[in-house]
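go over this chain:
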Amino acid sequence: MALLFLGALSSLGVALSSGGLTAQERVEIATESLCDTCLALEHLVTLGDSNDPVGFGRFSKTVQDGRGRYYVAPTFDMGRVLVYDSTGTFMSVFGQAGGGPKELGRIRRFRVSTGDSLHILHGGRYTVVSPTHVVVRTQIVRVNTGEFAVLRGGQLVVGGVLGTRAGAGYPLHLLEGDSVVRSFGLEKPDQRLESSILLKAHRVANGSNGRVWLGHYNQYQLELWDTTGTRIRTLRRDADWFVPWQSFTGGPTRPVMADVQQDINGYLWVLVAVPLRSSVLRFRREQGFQAREQPVMSVSEESSAFYTMIEVIDPDRGEMVASRRVDDLVVGFASDSTIYVRREDVGTGLVIDVLVVRLKP
């Protein structure tokens, strides 16, 4: 399960005003008015079929564009991206594995922007693909990352590890072309080994007005930053099912923040994967610069080990709007209104179920 990221606690104070929240506040999210019956879920479509030219892998993700098409990657054929229509019918496959300017390496994360361009982070590079699946541009990304947000004007904010004196220990990095403009996300860099291993697992999402949200992997903390490196707001929630933790080496299964996004109405949507029981994970050690310990779990084992909390927050007021438990491991958001789950199908292998999630009137 591709879910690892960490950050330090904010030192900002708590302050609420009747008109909302002011800049640079630390807010404990109010839960008194949350509704636990206000989120509706409905299965929309299943992606994946035994007749598809490429199979899904245990880290496969999906995003949906404005035309209703679904993209799935990474697949068993590295560098290939599968395309499905809005009904889940296979349409096409594009991409070629390699290190060339129009080739794709190991795909870590992708997003769809206005106009249905596809933005892909892969193998130390960032590539933009047109709605007709033609490579528009590609650039080097010197940050060891798995998360990013696309800003207007073509700038990127990526979350991860940057091995330079100026950028080391910061979780966020503003990129313009191949250059790092600024590293930020902490008042002071945290260069401890344990923190550096987890930095690239922070959740990064677009906020309003060119800002970005930083979600912490190991605790229920969300921070809004602008690209000058100023922290605008910190939101924290105390939940007995998400006790903060520091080390991910061995031990019992721990809760993690799986995904974050802000919708067009300004609400912040959060997915938290919560362990069903205190089970001990098996770990394997990766070697080299990216060395870290990765959990060894099959998709079916993940599904039996976790449930998911879906929560909706009004960040301006610091209030929880809705919360619902789902007895599946939700991988992430496919669009503003959809989430998705990986599962093993007897006849097909791995498939992806897409569900509509909405606030009830």
Notes: The first strand starts at residue 25 and ends at 28. The radius of gyration is 19 Å. DSSP finds two helices and 27 strands in the chain.
